[in-house]
Every structure is written in structure tokens, then in C-alpha cells.
Amino acid sequence: MLEIQHFKKTYPTGFQMEIDSLHLAKGIHLIKGENGSGKSTLLKAVVGIHDFEGEIKLDGISLKKEPISFRKLVNYSEAEPLFPDFLSMDELIAFAAETKGADQSQIPVLKEILGIGDFSKNPIATYSSGMLKKTGLILAFLGKPSLIILDEPYTTIDVGTQQRLTELIHRELEGGVSFLLTSHIADFEEFFAYDSVLTIADGNLIQSHE
Ligand SMILES: Nc1ncnc2c1ncn2[C@@H]1O[C@H](COP(=O)(O)OP(=O)(O)OP(=O)(O)O)[C@@H](O)[C@H]1O
């Protein structure tokens, strides 16, 4: 599903991440690592936010050679999402749904699952941290992605939403969508039977199969 070859990312601060070769099969994968180990750096490269040296392919499509096709296949929810304050969640959903070619019928279903009420019509400036997280999460499920990347999906959302999010991930997995999740908290690791666990430490990656 996801192939990474000769990956290298260096920040001006001196932090460097290198992955010689990584192949993730279809399914669900967990990335673990301490604060500052490089988890978000890798994810932001995979979704095309950060530039990098090397090659990343999803379902055989190269991020560098076919960036538009690649980006249609991958959706991403940030650990601490930031959106323009003056827009509402509904406006962001409308924009993302169009760019991702989402079926309109997905929207009310996802809103129900994620416990998104009337607040979605209000500007982002008025949102709590949980509402902001739900905004990032709903955008990540729109369209027909092959891979959904969720950075710290369970932090800041309430217990009921956590349970329904787990059911949603299981349902999408059964439908053939792959997931890459990160965590530095252990409590949700038992929710899924991971196909592999990637541990990142100081920009280096170790892959183990469950
Ligand atoms: N835009 C940036 N410019 C310079 N350095 C950065 C940038 N983003 C991250 N870094 C550095 O890269 C390293 C890895 O950061 P990264 O955000 O990938 O870690 P993380 O594993 O996701 O951490 P956390 O669990 O705290 O979210 C850190 O040393 C950080 O300071």
C-alpha cells in the first residue's frame, strides 16, 4: 500500500530523519514514539505538506510524480489542527468534500458518528479544543481515500466520541481503507489488531509485525 524509499528530511534546527526502505501492507499501522521523535515529520511528508528527499508511493502512485492523484488517495487529521478562524466547519466540509469528490450523503452520517451538532455552522474562532479536533477528523473521512492518517486521534475528544470513532475506523478498515495512527498515549492501542507497529526514536524507525 505505502512504499517509502531513501527518505531523508532535515530541519535547519539539525533534526534529521532517515528511512532507507519501508513497505506498509494494506491494513492498520501504529506509529509510536516520544515527543519530538519525528512522528509528525514523517506524516507531514507522506501527505505532501513537507518536502523531502527520496520517494513515497501510495498504491503505486508517486507523490512527487503524480501529486494530485496521490493527494486524492490520502486524508490526514493533525494532532492539533489549525484552521482559519473566520470559516465554519460546514464551510471547510463543503470545500474538502468538493476537492475529495465526496458523496454528500457521507456528511450527515459522519457528523452523527463524531457527535457534531449545530456548532458546525459557527466560526472556528468559537470552537473548543474537542470541536477543533472533530473538525480535523471529519475532514479526514471525506471522499474515498485509500489511506487515512490520524495523528493522535483520541486526544481531546470525549469518551463517547472515542468509542464511535473506533467503530468508524473498524468499519472503514472492513471497506478496504488503510490507516496510519500515531500515539504517545497507550490507552487506545488495544482497540485495534495492528498489522505493524513502527517505533520512531530520534528520527530512526524500527518496524515490528504484530
Ligand atoms: N517546522 C519545523 N522546523 C524545524 N524543526 C522542526 C519543525 N517541525 C518539527 N521540528 C523538529 O523535528 C523534531 C521532530 O518533531 P515532530 O513534530 O516530528 O515530533 P513528534 O514525534 O510528532 O512529536 P510529538 O509527539 O510531540 O507531537 C523535533 O526536534 C522538532 O523540534
From TrEMBL:
Task: Identify the keywords attached in UniProt to this record, alphabetized.
Answer: ATP-binding, Nucleotide-binding, Transport
Q: Which residues form a coiled coil?
A: none
A GO molecular function held by the record: ATP binding
Q: InterPro entries, per this entry?
A: AAA+_ATPase, ABC_transporter-like_ATP-bd, ABC_Transporter_VariousFunc, P-loop_NTPase
Pinpoint the ABC transporter domain residues.
2-210
Q: Does the keyword Transcription apply?
A: no
Task: Name the PROSITE patterns on file.
Answer: ABC_TRANSPORTER_2 (PS50893)
The identity of this protein, by name, is: ABC-2 type transport system ATP-binding protein
